[in-house]
Amino acid sequence: MSGQPVINEASITEGLRRVFRSDGAVNGDFTLRDPIPLADGGTINGASSIEISEIATRLNSAKSKTESSFQWENEAEFSLVSLDQVGAFDRFFEDKTFEGQGDNPVTFKVGRPSREFAAYLLCKFAQNPVLLTSGRSRMILNRIRQAGNGRVALSPVEGDTLFDVIAEGLRATTLQITAVKSRADFETLANSFLFHAAYNTDAAARIGLEAMFRPQAIQRVRRSQNGSLDAPRQTYDADLVHHYLMGVAAEIPLLEYLAYYHIAEHFFEKVFNEDLINQVRSGITDPSFSARRNKDIQSIVKIVTKVKGQIKDDGGVNEQRALQLVLDRFVSIPRLVADLDAYDADLVNHYATSDVPFAGASKVSIRGNDEEAARGAIAKRIYKVRNALVHAKEGELPKYAPFAHDEELAREIPLMRFTAEQIVIAQGKVL
Asked: Are 28 and 9 in contact (CB under 8 A)?
């Protein structure tokens, strides 16, 4: 359950405090500075300790919990992320309900989060304050705060509690599934609904949390404050820049990883051929080499023949070898370690102690290792992850499962991104 915050009355109340910038909690009740007016003339004054306790109990009673879902005996709720930039899925399915048939009919409802799921997102805010700093978060939270100050009215909401207001204001989308009898296959049902929706409407979404609720979204890294950003001092290769921008903009981890990998791949043929040339040059310039001795000429032929055989067998250059050559030429291990530590102090240790199960990739010791050995181990790990992403033959193991392995893949993206950045920068030309 990585990514799951602690869910209790205290964390929900702390989330309310952070969202409304208020310390209005007395005896477990949370009171707004200014009541929120309702269309019927009533007001919302806050949230009672009883309501907060009931919501916490309900969330903790779930049989199964992930970062983006809660599942109970006969119902479940999944956070959804639209897979297009204009939000076609959200607009098409907003507040729609689909009734099933049969002995155990299943109902699917797409719309704003339930009170419970809204409270869960408050816990995310409470325990990861950095989530409140993104541009989209500030815009959405300002709307909710203004409603709390009585300065703006939100769209009409179902229900009359503070959590209903928050659920409406967060602009998140969830899929709620209910069944008459107990079920254990709610995630399968959710994915089946998403396929059915995409097949019939071309509107696609996946199970997951939007970036504003995910503190580990690498594309949200900011190295400079707006006021301290300098003009560029180098020019960079356009093809490399385009791959990098695709990676930064990608919302799907698979696309992000491959975009950064393509930066290294850009140089595979060049460095591989140069390595062959260097091997031949080294052989024919060695003092012991003689063009008059057949065995010396044959040794050079063997070098070329061996490489040609590898190219034939692999259908091209030996990519893992080429990747290591690219890393040897362009990547500084001390800088890579510094970048990883600055992003997440636990990542270098994670790579040293954890395999990548979906890729069959082994642990890699980066810190304290000699640079050549470290680059070789990194090349193997990166290449195996890449292969797991692009090959999906039935029966082949290990194999990457889209979305199911996204959390594991997300841990590999910083290694790939910071490696790619060094390659881009190494190609820069001074202005």
From this structure: yes
